[in-house]
Design a protein that fits this description.
The chain has 186 residues and is mainly α. Helix content is 63%, strand content 6%.
């Protein structure tokens, strides 16, 4: 399938970075990145796993249409865990809490993203996108990785999502529970 009207992935990616005020190459070159939260800016180390995953993660935002916002990141985390997460223990530990938070803050959006992800594929298995991917029409890449229509959730999808949210919340709350337990038993 060749869609001449669709921008190339490279063109759409450049527009995505511009619209979201994201630097084009800081993911692969910067030693630090800034996480905004509650009006604060927190400098965070830009680990090697993050530098490798971020270009594909950003393309996933572009392909799925999930915005670069807190709710969009919750959706993206649920979609990526369902479609095929980045296979790195630290990346998993970093992104897993987003699924649980999304399950609380915007459960319907996060669940729908998870269901869509179960019928999708990610770019992570392919490695960093090459020239052929970047020069392909965006609509062609969407057709390759995303379902043609919104998949209908099945009963076991609900159980899988609930299990992922529970694991996420347990992972997120475990340090707090450990500190509270330590304080109680002092």
């Amino acid at each position: 399938m060749n869609n001449a009207e669709s921008p190339t992935v490279r063109e759409a990616q450049a527009q995505f970075y511009l619209e979201n005020q994201l630097p084009r190459d800081s993911a692969s070159t910067s030693r630090y990145w800034t996480m905004g939260f509650a009006g604060m800016s927190l400098p965070m180390p830009n680990f090697a796993w993050r530098r490798k995953a971020l270009p594909m993660h950003d393309l996933h935002h572009l392909l799925t249409g999930y915005p670069c916002s807190p709710a969009g990141e919750f959706e993206m985390a649920a979609w990526e865990f369902a479609a095929g997460r980045y296979r790195n223990l630290f990346a998993t530990a970093f992104c897993l809490p987003l699924v649980g938070i999304g399950g609380i803050v915007c459960p319907r959006r996060t669940f729908n993203a998870f269901i869509r992800g179960r019928a999708s594929r990610t770019l992570y298995a392919q490695g960093e996108p090459g020239i052929a991917v970047l020069d392909a029409p965006l609509d062609d890449l969407r057709a390759t990785l995303l379902p043609a229509s919104a998949p209908r959730p099945r009963l076991y999808d609900g159980f899988a999502y609930a299990g992922l949210v529970l694991i996420s919340l347990a992972w997120t709350l475990a340090p707090l529970a450990a500190v509270c337990g330590w304080i109680l038993f002092l």
